[in-house]
Amino acid sequence: MKKIIILIAVLIIFTSLYFFLGFYNVSATKQHMKITKMVLHSISESSIKRYAEGIQNPHDVNNMNIYKNGFMEYDEMCVQCHGWDSLEPSNTGKGLNPKPPIFPDEGLYEFTIEEIFWVAKNGVKMTGMPAYGPTHEDETIWAIAIFLDKSRNLSANEYSDLKHKYEGNNDDHHHGDQ
Fold first, then answer.
1. pLDDT at 171
2. What is the b/e burial string over 23-45, where b = at least 16 CB atoms within 10 angstroms of the residue's CB?
3. 146 lies in which domain range?
């Protein structure tokens, strides 16, 4: 038993030295090790599910004005990092590590509308996903969540069609800054 305690103590000391002496490369150009990715993803997913528990969507998911506003907000604030289907993210989005999920196919299906709302409102540490709650009304964030939830099968062409449909027709759209 004593040998196991000593082994654990040595492992903790060497691991601490590795990180605190700067040997771990924090460059965003270097991918995490697979085990690190897996652990971080698992922690994030569990946390999101826990903290989104009990949240209730107060809006009608079939309201086309909310859907339109959600699309407009997503197109203004989110598409540059998340892209859409085959629409690539901007250079900023491409430079993030870990890479943001490309919607609608990557990573969106595992989350409920309430979890999408929670992520957009609170952000996710160490991913580049900002918290929009401090700068945007809940109504705006719900609109984005509703758009994402209702658009899980929206193709890049359909996304582009929506962009053309709503472009210049955004009189009732206002960015949700507080």
1. 53
2. eeeeeeeeeeeeeeeeebeeebe
3. 60-166
Whether the predicted pLDDT of 169 surpasses 70: no
Look up residue 33 and give its amino acid.
M
Q: Are 104 and 148 in contact, with CB atoms under 8 Å apart?
A: yes
Q: What is the pLDDT of residue 85?
A: 85
pTM, to two decimals? 0.82
The CA distance from 152 to 38, in Å, is 24
Please tell me the distance from the alpha carbon of residue 133 to that of residue 178, in angstroms, as a whole number: 10
Q: Give the alpha-carbon dihedral of 50, 56, 60, 62, to 10 degrees.
A: 20
CA distance linking residue 13 with residue 58, whole number of Å: 50
Q: 28 or 112: whose pLDDT is higher?
A: 112
**Torsion over CA of 89, 92, 97 and 98, rounded to 10 degrees?**
-30
CATH number at 93 reads 1.10.760.10
